[in-house]
């Protein structure tokens, strides 16, 4: 198996090393793991691509590259430049430092990389590690993802139907904020929404009098609707959410047929 790996935390991120370990386990001794990750952190860029300017690609070592761009840029570089004549069999994005459950999925560069791979007609998964009091101070706070990641991916690959037409599935995987030994299980879960939680902006004035803005995140441990991704994560389970790039609300679309 040939696996392409990317992330949004950058080429030097700890979570990327964890994902490379997971990918190597999946690929096996006869497989290949290729890493194309952002040269600098790209958290929160979503599915952004660098359409209006070029991106430099640097080879850092065997099968290891950094690109000056977003995770989606890195996937495009991997597929169309670095692996031009040998497309990967699977694209993995992560392991993100922090969860991409609930509304976080809409901002996530980690998911943006997986989405771009799906748009390129390749199976893809985004992996993220939820942090909380039970794991943030561990020697390896990514240990739940590292211990269970390969098995989870194998199960998803085995359960995913063959792609036929339309937008291809990609999968959003979130590991709970607990130690590896305390993970309860794997749950298929829809995307949730944390009530009264959103990003916000805070103004600050620099020493020279210029106005700047910092983006602030919301409480990641607010209870969500039972059975949704963030809820099962906070209960100690790994969540997997199948997604597509199609944002159409089918129920609303049917309700609007009367406008025609």
UniProtKB/TrEMBL annotation:
Q: Which Pfam families match?
A: SurE
Sorted alphabetically, the keyword list is: Cytoplasm, Hydrolase, Metal-binding, Nucleotide-binding
The family database entries (Gene3D superfamilies) matched by this protein are listed as:
Survival protein SurE-like phosphatase/nucleotidase (3.40.1210.10)
Q: Where in the cell is it found?
A: Cytoplasm
Superkingdom, taxonomy of origin:
Bacteria
Catalysis performed (reactions): a ribonucleoside 5'-phosphate + H2O = a ribonucleoside + phosphate
Q: Where does a divalent metal cation bind?
A: 8-9, 43, 96
Q: Which GO terms describe its molecular function?
A: 3'-nucleotidase activity; 5'-nucleotidase activity; exopolyphosphatase activity; metal ion binding; nucleotide binding
Query: Can you give the residue ranges of the Survival protein SurE-like phosphatase/nucleotidase domain?
Result: 3-194
Report the top EC class in one word: hydrolase
Q: Which InterPro entries match?
A: SurE, SurE-like_Pase/nucleotidase, SurE-like_sf
Q: How is the cofactor bound?
A: Binds 1 divalent metal cation per subunit.
Q: Which cofactor does it need?
A: a divalent metal cation
User: Which EC numbers does the record give?
Assistant: 3.1.3.5
Per the record, its GO cellular-component terms are: cytoplasm
Summarizing the function annotation, the protein's role is: Nucleotidase that shows phosphatase activity on nucleoside 5'-monophosphates.
Q: Which family does it belong to?
A: Belongs to the SurE nucleotidase family.
**Annotated protein name in UniProt:** 5'-nucleotidase SurE
Write the gene name.
surE
């Amino acid at each position: 198996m040939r696996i392409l790996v990317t992330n949004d935390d950058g080429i030097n991120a700890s979570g990327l090393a964890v994902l490379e370990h997971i990918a190597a386990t999946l690929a096996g001794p006869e497989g290949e793991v290729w890493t194309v990750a952002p040269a600098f952190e790209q958290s929160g860029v979503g599915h952004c691509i660098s359409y209006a300017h070029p991106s430099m690609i640097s080879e850092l070592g065997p099968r290891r590259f950094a690109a000056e761009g977003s995770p989606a840029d890195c996937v495009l570089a991997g597929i169309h430049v670095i692996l031009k004549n040998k497309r990967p069999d699977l694209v993995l994005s992560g392991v993100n430092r922090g969860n991409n459950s609930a509304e976080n999925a809409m901002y996530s560069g980690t998911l943006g990389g997986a989405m771009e791979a799906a748009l390129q007609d390749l199976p893809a998964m985004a992996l993220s590690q939820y942090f909380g009091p039970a794991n943030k101070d561990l020697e390896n706070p990514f240990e739940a993802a590292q211990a269970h990641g390969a098995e989870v991916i194998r199960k998803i690959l085995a359960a995913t139907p063959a792609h036929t037409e339309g937008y291809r599935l990609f999968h959003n995987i979130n590991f709970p904020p607990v130690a590896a030994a305390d993970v309860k299980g794997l749950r298929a879960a829809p995307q949730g929404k944390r009530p009264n939680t959103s990003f916000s902006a805070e103004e600050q004035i620099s020493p020279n009098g210029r106005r700047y803005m910092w983006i602030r995140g919301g409480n990641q441990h607010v209870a969500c609707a039972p059975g949704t991704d963030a809820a099962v994560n906070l209960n100690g389970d790994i969540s997997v959410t199948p997604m597509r790039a199609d944002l159409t609300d089918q129920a609303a679309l049917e309700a609007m047929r009367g406008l025609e």
